[in-house]
Amino acid sequence: MSGGLTPRVTAGIDLGAVRHNLARVRAAAPESRVMAAIKADAYGHGAVPVARALADADALAVACVEEALQLRDAGIDQTVVLLEGVLSADEARLCARHRLAVVVHDRQQLTWLGALAETEAVDCWIKLDTGMNRLGFPSTEAARTLEALQATAGCRFIGWMTHLACADERQSPMTAWQIESFDAALRGLPGQRSLANSAGILAHPRAHADWVRPGLMLYGASPFTDERAVDLGLRPVMTLRSRILSMHEVRAGDSVGYGARWHCQRDTRLGVVAVGYADGLHRSLPTSGVRFRVRDAQVELVGRVSMDMISVDLSRVPDARVGDRVTLWGGNPAVEEIAAQAGTLAYESFCGLTRRVKFEYIDSDAAD
Ligand SMILES: *Cc1c(COP(=O)(O)O)cnc(C)c1O
Q: Which of 50, 120, 127, 188 is deepest in the core (most CB within 10 A)?
C-alpha cells in the first residue's frame, strides 16, 4: 500500500543507541538491576522494537495492562512490571495469566488481587509515598501494608518502590530527604528497594539501591536542564526529519505565516517544510530563534508552526533544493533544546508525535 510513497515526516529510531544507553545505565549503577521504563509506547519510540533492543534489561516497566499485553502478544517474555498496577479484578486475572508483576499503591488493589488463588499469585512491589504525593502508601504504613499484602493470597511480595520528585534538580534537598524517609520507613523490613529514575541514576548514587528505573536516558536525552546528553555519554535514539516542500523569495518587510507574526528584515529565500503540529511539532515554538538543520547548516524557523507546514530561512544553505531533508531534532539540534524553546521537556516532545509520522528502525551497531 505504501509503495512509491515518499514519507513526509520520519522518526529514525536507532536501536544500537538504545543498547548503548542501557550500557551507560549499567556503568552508572553497576550494583543495581535495571527495570527499563518503556511505558507510553517506549516514550513514543515504539514499545516492541525498543523492548527487543532491551533484551538485556532485567525487567521492563509499563504503565498499564494494555501496554504489557502488547509486549506479550509480540512474544516478549521478560519480566514486565505495571507501574500503575491493576484497575479491576479482571486486570488482576490478566496479570496472573500473563505473568505480569504489579505495583500496589492502594488498598483497593489488594482486594482485586485477593480474588486470585494462591497458585496464581502475582509478583508485587509496594509503592511508598515519600513526598511526591502522587501514588503510594504513606511511609508510616509500610509495615502494616506489608502484612496486608502477605495476607493476600494473590500477592507474592517482591519489594518496595518510591518515586523521586526533584532528582533532576541537583541542589534540591528533597532527594536526600526522600531517600532518608524511604530508608527509615523500611528499616528492618525485608524486600528489594527501588527509587531512581534517570536523574536519580545520574545524579544521586545513594538512590541506586537494588533496582534502578531508567526511562528518558535510554532514549538518549538528558534529564537535566544544565547538562547535555552528549556530555552525559548518551546517544540520541530518535532523529525527526521532514523535507523541503517549496522554496520562494520574500522581500524585506514581508510577513510570513498565520498572524503575520514574523517580518522579513532583508530579502530572504525561504523553504516551506512539510511538518507541523499535526505531526507533533510544538505550536508553542517562538516565531524566531529556533534552529533546525539542512545539509549540516542551521536554518531558522520563521513565523508560526501551522498544522502541516513550517517556514525556514534558507540563507545559509544556498544549494538547498525541494525534497531536501530537514532535521527537526536528534543530536543536532537536540530534542531537549527544541523542547525547552517550546516551553516543555523532551519527555513531552517524544510522546507528542502523531500517527502521521513514519517510524524507521535502524541499528547503528549492525551497520559497522
Ligand atoms: C516513568 C517512570 C520512571 C522513568 O523515569 P525517567 O525520568 O524517564 O527516567 C521511573 N519510575 C517510575 C515510577 C516512572 O513512572
A: 127
Which residue has the least CA distance to atom 15 on ligand 1?
A: 83
Q: Is the Cα dihedral 212, 213, 218, 222 positive or negative?
A: negative
- Per DSSP, the three-state class of 340 is helix
What cell numbers appear for 366 in the block? 549492525
What does the alpha-carbon distance between residue 133 and residue 198 come to, in Å, rounded to a whole number?
A: 20
Neighbours of 93 (CB within 10 A): 18
Cα 67 vs. chain centroid, distance in angstroms? 14
252-273 b/e (C-beta count within 10 Å ≥ 16 → b): eeeebbeeeebebeeebebbbb
Instruction: List, for residues 244-278, the tens digit of each pLDDT value.
Output: 999 999 998 888 888 888 888 889 999 999 999 99
Centre of ligand 1 from the C-alpha of residue 189, in Å: 24
Total residues found in the chain within this entry: 368
